[in-house]
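seq:
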Amino acid sequence: MEQSEIFIELTRLAEQHKLTGDDLEDVKDSDSIEMDAWEVVYQYCLDRHYKTPKKFLENKPIFEDDNPFGEKKWFIDTLIVSNADVAEIAYYLVSKFWPEEFSSKEDYIESVMEHLESPDLFY
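struct:
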């Protein structure tokens, strides 16, 4: 999938996300839509044969077996701070899903880097 197609898909998912409500079923739907959006980014990274930069492998967290999403999100995060195209796509995602969360792409990348460098790294 090309970046333009990814942006279209992420926009579609973000629009679905905005339509969810606050009851328990809606929260589950919302989480599922968010995971679907991150899965689009993950697949983009795999399609380009991106690998986790070696500097992040030293601080790789332990992931719970029942939560494969955590390892995928960590993989994406390591690429956000090292690949401009992944940073662009991920920032597009967060700006569509949570427009008030970050004031700029640079702030977002800095936040991801701080998380990756945290001694209490978790996913």
